[in-house]
């Protein structure tokens, strides 16, 4: 954690030297802080503040969450390193922290999920609402998202209440992890570790996607997916193997090797 934060500060200082007009936001967002969780709490409060809820109140909520649950910082670090490793548009660690709404939306969701676990459901719903309004990402605070999650572009992401996402998953924009109707109870998908979900894919119902599988862009998945395969189509069907051992890390979405 210390080495990563040191690198972030070095990158921030380089940005200020190269672009002095960004000195204010870079200092406020990064250089004024001594730890990653402090910078994340600041960003959470800055982005989600509104006429209904002040930045100060939201900062107090975020600070409490990070103090009470150290795994939030550890998970944020894994999410950050996932973006750095998998997103070809990410050339520095400060980019997700300052500019990428996918990373920032996930970290805000994680505070909302912490609130949900504390029994503060109405405040968690408020956080969900603001994430949707600010980032265009709608994640129910009860959903369970594992560490090492990377959501690229992150426009129009929808993740339902009983969805579960494993570790080291990558997904692109316009993905839905939803239900198939108005039924109650456990009604959303369960995504295994290391899964790659292509842009526009819809995974619907209480179904399981096996670890290290690929969901091709635009697919509609309505039934269980075995591990280590590629599925494509409407409705989706198995079209081959996953193509590699870690599809979420390679981010290769071509079907010619399926």
UniProtKB/TrEMBL annotation:
Q: Could you say which protein family the record assigns here?
A: Belongs to the transferase hexapeptide repeat family.
Q: Which Gene3D superfamilies match?
A: Hexapeptide repeat proteins (2.160.10.10), serine acetyltransferase, domain 1 (1.10.3130.10)
Record domain Serine acetyltransferase N-terminal: where: 4-108
What is the species listed in this Swiss-Prot or TrEMBL entry?
Answer: Paracoccus suum
Q: Which reaction does it catalyse?
A: L-serine + acetyl-CoA = O-acetyl-L-serine + CoA
Quote the InterPro entries the UniProt record gives. Answer: Hexapep (IPR001451), Hexapep_transf_CS (IPR018357), LbH_SAT (IPR045304), Ser_AcTrfase_N (IPR010493), Ser_AcTrfase_N_sf (IPR042122), Ser_O-AcTrfase (IPR005881), Serine_acetyltransferase (IPR053376), Trimer_LpxA-like_sf (IPR011004)
The EC number of this protein is 2.3.1.30
Going by the UniProt record, its keywords in alphabetical order are: Acyltransferase, Amino-acid biosynthesis, Repeat, Transferase
Query: Its Gene Ontology biological processes?
Result: cysteine biosynthetic process from serine
- UniProt GO molecular function: serine O-acetyltransferase activity
Q: Which top EC class is named for this enzyme in its record?
A: transferase
Q: In which pathway does it act?
A: Amino-acid biosynthesis; L-cysteine biosynthesis; L-cysteine from L-serine: step 1/2
Superkingdom of source: Bacteria
| Protein name listed in UniProt | Serine acetyltransferase
**A GO CC annotation given for this chain:** cytoplasm
């Amino acid at each position: 954690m210390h080495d990563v934060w040191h690198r972030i500060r070095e990158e921030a200082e380089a940005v200020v030297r190269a672009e002095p007009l960004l000195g204010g936001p870079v200092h406020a967002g990064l250089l004024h802080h001594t730890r990653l969780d402090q910078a994340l709490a600041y960003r959470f409060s800055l982005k989600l503040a509104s006429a209904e809820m002040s930045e100060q109140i939201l900062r107090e909520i975020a600070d409490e969450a990070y103090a009470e649950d150290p795994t939030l910082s550890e998970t944020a670090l894994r999410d950050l390193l996932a973006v750095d490793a998998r997103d070809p548009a990410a050339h520095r660690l400060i980019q997700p922290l300052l500019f990428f709404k996918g990373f920032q939306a996930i970290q805000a969701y994680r505070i909302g999920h912490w609130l949900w676990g504390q029994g503060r459901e109405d405040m968690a719903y408020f956080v969900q609402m603001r994430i949707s309004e600010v980032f265009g990402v709608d994640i129910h605070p009860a959903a369970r998202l594992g560490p090492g999650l990377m959501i690229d572009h992150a426009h129009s992401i929808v993740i339902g209440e009983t969805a579960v996402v494993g570790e080291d998953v990558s997904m692109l924009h316009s993905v839905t992890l939803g239900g198939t109707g108005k039924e109650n109870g456990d009604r959303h998908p369960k995504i295994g570790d290391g899964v790659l979900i292509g842009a526009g894919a819809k995974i619907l119902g209480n179904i399981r996607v096996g670890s290290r599988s690929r969901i091709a862009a635009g697919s509609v998945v309505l039934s269980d997916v075995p591990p280590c395969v590629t599925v494509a189509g409407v409705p989706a069907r198995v079209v081959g193997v996953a193509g590699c051992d870690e599809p979420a890390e390679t981010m290769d979405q071509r079907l010619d090797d399926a």
